[in-house]
Design goal:
cytoplasm, four-stranded antiparallel sheet, 312 residues, five-stranded mixed sheet, RNA-binding, 33% strand, alpha+beta, exosome, nucleus
């Protein structure tokens, strides 16, 4: 009997990539980063001796045409879409109170990405045993029409992991101890998508925090999220290089090898969620981009606070 794919479980890694170069340890190297060794079987030119500005790498990810999706490694990232720098996020728009039947709601737009959040509660759950604090339930859904490639309706493994990250970022900010035996339901729907899944999670955290504030739920402070992706760049002196881009577009995120999500409460200077997915070769750059994301969350916090102030 053949094994069937169980969508309720994580059956394996979400992204697997075919290695293009053998990873070796160079004699006399002062760093732990892997070096690039030329694979003669693939007939690739040594990137160091090439004067090209970018190199196309083949991955095991298959596209709609059942062909491998190429990953681009560039030499220079000074030019980005929308004339942004590598550490500059896109402008964000927040509108509060769009769903009249919800206790609180928010619409967030950043570039072409649009998502809506509705909060219901706090409300008492019948038949539930007494608990000293409220229960937070987060539902994260991708609309079937949110991307060029149509999504299947319903939840999948990726939606559950995204909802878990949003819940992890919101829990430290909500005074659940003041609402015993209550339930707070947060519904997030991605309407249009122009970033990575990690980018949608960061924006969802910001929108959910604004919706919770409109619902009158007591919080320690507003939560804002920002994300960055590591794009492979051409090797320098035989060592692997990565360039971190803050708030990547969907095209930039398609070539990323790592994603970083940082969610903070700027009013208290606290970090509620820090998630790094994928390999990071230089933790000095990770610290630098983390500081840039903290600054980005401070700007998003002020935008959200102004939207709530206008509502009052």
């Amino acid at each position: 009997m053949t094994a069937q794919f169980d969508r309720r479980r994580v059956n394996g890694p979400e992204d697997t990539f075919l290695p293009l170069y053998n990873v070796e340890t160079r004699e006399g190297s002062t760093t732990d980063a892997p070096v690039w060794a030329l694979d003669e079987q693939r007939l690739l030119v040594d990137p160091e001796s090439s004067s090209a500005d970018q190199l196309e790498l083949t991955t095991m990810v298959l596209g709609d045409d059942k062909l491998p999706v190429p990953r681009i490694a560039r030499r220079e990232f000074s030019k980005r879409t929308e004339n942004r720098g590598i550490l500059d996020p896109r402008p964000m728009f927040v509108q509060i109170g769009l769903v009249p039947n919800a206790s609180g709601s928010a619409l967030l737009e950043s570039g072409r990405t649009k998502l809506a959040c509705a909060v219901h509660g706090p409300r008492q759950v019948r038949g539930r045993q007494y608990a000293g604090q409220a229960e937070l339930n987060v539902n994260f859904n991708m609309a079937p029409f949110c991307d060029v490639q149509r999504f299947k309706p319903g939840k999948d493994v990726e939606s559950h992991s995204s909802a878990a990250l949003v819940e992890q970022a919101l829990l430290p900010a909500i005074r659940l101890d003041l609402l015993p035996k209550a339930s707070i339901d947060v519904y997030i729907t991605v309407l249009d998508m122009d970033t990575s899944t990690a980018g949608c999670v960061a924006l969802a955290v910001t929108a959910a925090s604004a919706a919770l504030a409109e619902a009158g739920i007591e919080m320690y402070g507003l939560v804002a999220g920002a994300t960055a992706s590591a794009i492979p760049s051409l090797p320098f002196k035989g060592e692997v290089q990565q360039q971190w881009l803050v708030d990547p577009s969907q095209e930039e995120a398609a070539h990323a090898s790592a994603h970083l999500i940082v969610c903070t409460m700027p009013a208290l200077g606290r970090t509620t969620c820090y998630s790094l997915q994928g390999p990071a070769h230089d933790f000095g750059k990770v610290q630098e981009v983390s500081n840039a994301l903290v600054e980005a969350t401070s700007k998003l916090h002020s935008i959200t606070a102004q939207a709530l102030y206008k509502l009052s």
